[in-house]
Amino acid sequence: MARILLVDDDPATLDVLDFAFQLEGHETTTAVDGQEGLEAAVTVLPDLIVLDSMMPRMDGLTAARLIRETAELDGIPIIMLTAKAMSSDIWAGWQAGVDSYITKPLDLDVLRSEMARIGIAAPAPILAGVA
Fold first, then answer.
1. Is 54 left (phi over 0), alpha (psi -120 to 50) or beta?
2. Which of 76, 86, 107, 113 is the least crowded, having the fewest Cβ atoms under 10 Å away?
3. What CATH number is associated with residue 32?
4. Span 31-37, mean pLDDT?
5. What mean pLDDT comes out for the span 54-74?
6. Is 11 domain-assigned?
7. CA–CA separation, 28 vs 97, rounded Å?
8. pTM of this structure
9. Residue 85 falls within a domain, yes or no?
10. Closest CA to 7 of 54, 66, 47
11. DSSP letters spanning 31-96
């Protein structure tokens, strides 16, 4: 089980991610903008941060940079999940320090693959009645 911080201003995206990750046995925390996400990251110290780029108050690129500048958060993997798909957007994400950059629309299989690539795998399924 991993502690995953989900940061997105779209309630539908947060709901889908929250439900999918909890179903897989992960512990989730949600935030609706970069500022709230940064504050939650310091409190929760998650194993993974899934971060949108375009959000009110503080965008995801700024949040990613600040996470990388915060000693206790610097090693936490960040997956940017965003609708911004131009090569300049992707490059800006890498420069901000993200470990992976995934474009929307949301594809849970792609997200899970990237999680596995950076070392955050889904827990093994519980098999009832197997001895």
1. beta
2. 86
3. 3.40.50.2300
4. 97
5. 95
6. yes
7. 22
8. 0.91
9. yes
10. 54
11. ESSHHHHHHHHHHH--SEEEE-SS-SSS-HHHHHHHHHHSTTTTTS-EEEEES--SHHHHHHHHHH
- Segments forming the whole domain that contains residue 81: 3-117
Question: How far apart (Å, rounded) are the C-alpha atoms in residues 72 and 62?
Answer: 17
- Residues 51-81 as b/e (b if ≥16 CB within 10 A, e otherwise) read bbbebeebbbbbbbebbbeeeebeebbbbbb
Query: Percent of the chain having pLDDT more than 90?
Result: 85
- Provide the token pair at 103: 């474009």
Looking at the structure of the chain, the number of domains it has is: 1
Maximum pairwise Cα distance, the chain: 53
Q: In this structure, which amino acid lies at residue 89?
A: D
